[in-house]
């Protein structure tokens, strides 16, 4: 049953839940109302019965006891002059003595005999029973008090006998049945109306979800990530938040796909140049061998050196692409650890001094500890220093300072034009003035991704007096964090 319910559409489930909730509430109210009305009607019947009790005439009791066990005669007198009431004396042994003119006889219960055996003046006992014909009656049993044999004398309590007064419940039960039928009809109408209202509300409330579903299905079918769901600016409900999240997700996916396509196009363009040069040189060497025309040793040596350089450039480009793809995928948590940034900078400085022996590299490095992937962080710093070495003039100076988590690398090269600064961290972007130099245009992009994933920021700014200042800021502390126990 639960599985079948879960298989229903959401709007059907909402309508059923609303109908069920309303049905429960209406049923509770209806049952409560019915019992309250029943109690009020029975209280009214009990009050009518109490109005009939009182001292019974001595003569009426004498006539009733002579006719014990006989059917009453409705034409005769009864103690209260009402033929629609039941009047009878119940003896302690259960014998019934009906008054003449009583509406009939009522079946005696144990509680009636208990009152007859132990009468207590003023104590009333109510119950619901049946008469000799099986009709429902409301019964009042009280101790039997009769008038005095002497006119004007005080009434007396009769031992081992009780007075039983009853009234038919046909009218009361008919009223209760009509009320139950009315409440059932009203409840049914209420439940059906609640179900219809719930379905209408569900349709209206889920209309934005339908639009979202259609948009998702459209994206899945056509891969069109330009789809956007209109959202009211001042709306803050769950549907609006879901729509904004969907729009943000499709925007991010579209941007990611554009970046991937751009990366593929740029990578293909960058790979084409070394591959073409490599293919040309290899074909030249192969043709020389096939035709038996050896290339002069000096030219052959130059061709082989060119092949080696192109292969090195190709390997470096592939390595940069792999590094960049790992950066896009994020850094696994198990690779992140506390890194002494000053040691990483010193290691990168040693490599930079080997690549630019003609340069003067000064360093002022103070302790700073960060959380990052060690190899990726070292690669980023090496790329920054490589750029400084590449663009520094012969005999130039590079100043490296690490203080309070801020690493600055200042060179005295030609600098970067202000119109090119916004593009320096783009993939495969290379300054027109630097395209003749070796490189793939991925170094600074790798730096930006690595620093961002470590929670820091990087920037390039023109230096006073010429050159460029590269600044990396990383969160951390001058002392390593305590080890976990």
From TrEMBL:
Keyword Transmembrane helix in annotation: yes
Catalytic activity: ATP + protein L-histidine = ADP + protein N-phospho-L-histidine
Molecular functions (GO terms): phosphorelay sensor kinase activity
SMART domains: HAMP, HATPase_c, HisKA
InterPro entries noted in UniProt: HAMP_dom, HATPase_C_sf, HATPase_dom, His_kinase_dom, HisK_dim/P_dom, HisK_dim/P_sf, Sig_transdc_His_kin-like_C, TCS_sensor_his_kinase
Domain Histidine kinase: 266-478
Coiled-coil spans in chain: none
Polar residues: compositionally biased ranges: 61-78
UniProt domain HAMP: residue ranges: 203-258
Region spans: Disordered: 61-80, 459-485
Entry's EC annotation: 2.7.13.3
SUPFAM superfamilies per UniProt: ATPase domain of HSP90 chaperone/DNA topoisomerase II/histidine kinase, HAMP domain-like, Homodimeric domain of signal transducing histidine kinase
Keywords assigned by UniProt, alphabetized: Kinase, Membrane, Phosphoprotein, Transferase, Transmembrane, Transmembrane helix, Two-component regulatory system
Localization (cell): Cell membrane
Enzyme category, top tier: transferase
Membrane-spanning residues: 179-202
GO cellular component terms listed in the entry, alphabetical order: plasma membrane
CDD domains: HAMP (cd06225), HATPase (cd00075), HisKA (cd00082)
Name this polypeptide is given: histidine kinase
């Amino acid at each position: 049953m639960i599985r079948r319910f879960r298989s229903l559409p959401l709007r059907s489930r909402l309508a059923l839940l609303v109908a069920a909730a309303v049905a429960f509430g209406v049923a509770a109210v209806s049952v409560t109302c019915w019992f309250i009305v029943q109690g009020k009607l029975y209280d009214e019947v009990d009050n009518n019965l109490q109005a009939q009790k009182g001292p019974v005439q001595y003569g009426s009791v004498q006539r009733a006891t002579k006719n014990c066990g006989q059917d009453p005669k409705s034409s005769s007198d009864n103690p209260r002059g009402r033929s629609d009431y039941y009047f009878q004396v119940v003896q302690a042994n259960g014998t019934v003595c009906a008054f003449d003119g009583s509406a009939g006889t009522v079946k005696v219960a144990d509680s009636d005999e208990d009152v007859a055996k132990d009468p207590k003046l003023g104590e009333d006992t109510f119950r619901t029973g049946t008469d000799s014909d099986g009709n429902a009656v409301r019964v009042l049993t009280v101790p039997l008090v009769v008038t005095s044999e002497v006119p004007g004398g005080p009434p007396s309590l009769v031992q081992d006998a009780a007075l039983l007064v009853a009234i038919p419940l046909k009218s009361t039960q008919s009223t209760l049945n009509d009320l139950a039928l009315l409440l059932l009809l009203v409840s049914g109408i209420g439940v059906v109306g609640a179900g219809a209202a719930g379905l209408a509300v569900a349709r209206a409330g889920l209309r934005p979800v339908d639009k979202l579903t259609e948009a998702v299905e459209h994206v899945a079918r056509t891969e069109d990530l330009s789809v956007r769901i209109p959202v009211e600016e001042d709306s803050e409900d769950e549907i609006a938040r879901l729509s904004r999240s969907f729009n943000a997700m499709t925007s991010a996916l579209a941007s990611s796909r554009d970046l991937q396509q751009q990366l593929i196009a740029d990578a293909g363009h960058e790979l084409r140049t070394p591959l073409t040069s490599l293919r040309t040189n290899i074909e030249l060497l192969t043709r020389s061998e096939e035709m038996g025309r050896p290339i002069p040793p000096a030219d052959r040596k130059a061709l082989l050196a060119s092949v080696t350089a192109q292969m090195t450039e190709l390997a470096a480009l592939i390595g940069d692409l792999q590094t960049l793809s790992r950066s896009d995928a994020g850094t696994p948590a198990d690779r992140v650890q506390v890194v002494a940034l000053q040691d990483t900078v010193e290691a990168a400085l040693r490599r930079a001094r080997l690549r630019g022996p003609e340069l003067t590299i000064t360093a002022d490095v103070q302790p700073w500890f960060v959380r990052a992937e060690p190899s990726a962080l070292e690669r980023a710093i090496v790329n920054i220093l490589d750029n400084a070495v590449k663009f520094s003039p012969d005999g130039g100076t590079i100043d490296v300072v690490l203080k309070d988590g801020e690493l600055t690398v200042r060179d005295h090269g030609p600098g970067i034009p202000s119109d090119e600064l916004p593009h320096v961290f783009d993939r495969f972007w290379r300054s027109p003035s630097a395209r003749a130099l070796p490189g793939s245009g991925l170094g600074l992009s790798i730096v930006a991704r690595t620093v961002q994933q470590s929670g820091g920021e990087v920037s390039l700014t023109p230096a006073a007096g010429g050159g460029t200042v590269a600044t990396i800021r990383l969160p951390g502390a001058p002392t390593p964090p305590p080890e976990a126990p």
